[in-house]
Amino acid sequence: MSDDKNRVYIFDTTMRDGEQSPGASMSLEEKLQISNLFDQIGVDIIEAGFPAASKGDFEAVSEISKILKTSIPCGLSRHIKKDIDACNEALKSAERFRIHTFISTSPLHMKHKLNKSSEEVLEAIKEHVTYARKFTDNVEWSCEDGTRTDIDFMCRTVELAIKCGAKTINIPDTVGYSVPSEFTKIIKHLINNVPNIDKAILSTHCHNDLGLAVANSLAGVVAGARQVECTINGIGERAGNAALEEIVMAMKTRNDLMPFHTNINTKLLSKASKLVSSATYPVQFNKAIVGKNAFAHEAGIHQDGMLKHRNTYEIMKPESVGVKQSSLVMGKHSGRHAFKEKLNDLGYTGVTDDIIQIAFGKFKVLADKKKHVYDEDIAALVDDSLIKEDNVIILKSLRVFAGTGEPQKADMTLEVYGEIKKATETGDGPVDAIFKCVKKLYPHEVKLQLYQVHAVTEGTDAQATVSVRIEENGKTTVGQAADTDTLVASANAYLNALNKMIIKRKKTAPEEYEQKKMKGI
Question: Which domain, by its residues, includes 311?
Fold first, then answer.
């Protein structure tokens, strides 16, 4: 770790704590893609998972640890030796790695969760931090439910953990209970009362149950913490975690009050947000830093101010987080060359000519339908065109009959493993009829866990982005698609999720995959 006293280390737990958020389960392929981008962005430590939790988590931690060039991979463990062994086994391929071990220390948790006395917890800390230290000199220790822990007992636990070899001490606000003034006092008390505190870095890990995760994390940094545990888009259990992008940009924007710095390339924050969102669930429009409306101005007074001087209503430059300022630049008269240049501006470098041609065709159709085509529209078109070559189900045509007086009906044609199939089904609404058609043409037993629609841009002619989450035998996939026709987007989103599930079968259960392929399912 650096000797720079104002350097704040970013510990990302998107793929561990973030994935515990309902609907945020990610495939190995998605985790590897996200990890690669986090490595480029400059995340210092990537908590890749909880190796002892499942084979999938173990594999993810192992594979991620092999591809990181700069970031340090980390695995989480309870105060159980087999957990620590699993971390070591999963991370051993990495040149350097961290083991993050934790135990509850609040009276409530010790009594009702652990059924242990405070002395037994101290013995557990001594035993397991010492044990983890045998595998790496980079051990982090956390006192779960720290903000509801007796402060004098916390001092004893922290002193012991450092004595046993922990180099990072994390103070979690596990249930999002604390407020900034209180969190400040906790960090300062530890700094002033733990004799060996100078031998470790203090860290924050704040949840957002009261909407204070970022505020508490920054309060901790001001008080002396030099690591922040956070997630992209603030995803995580219940109300989520402190959002990485908000933490970083708050320190960068208000450096006059918080003279700290990170190693994060902020120009990649928007890209990271979109990547995590595509693997989990959409970001709310008014989300700070990365939300669709974060740099949008609609009110006449605001627009007038912006035209005169952008700083009147913008405290950050959109470009600083990877967002382009312009919103209306493309129309039906734009050519293919201009479209390709726009894709480069939006960060779609390396896209093949075939994908550009498909997206451009969709763009021309959309431009005829809409008065205004926004950057978000174009991004949605390209994302929707990036269909993997190994997709086995493709929508060829769809007709839907809806309204009052007659049952809703869908006529659908799919290409399944290269074979053209057609079906007609009725349902409780047009979407239900569409999904029944898919199930008839491609028999399957997946469970629909989520169906969500939101508009990419404003207006009645806006593109709709549909998100679908399905589950099969414990495996979960998320599909997304965009179209001005919500029903077409619904069909493609469901098929996207199914194709991802088929890919999961192929990788995790190849024999089952081949058997189903033989049957055309």
Answer: 296-322
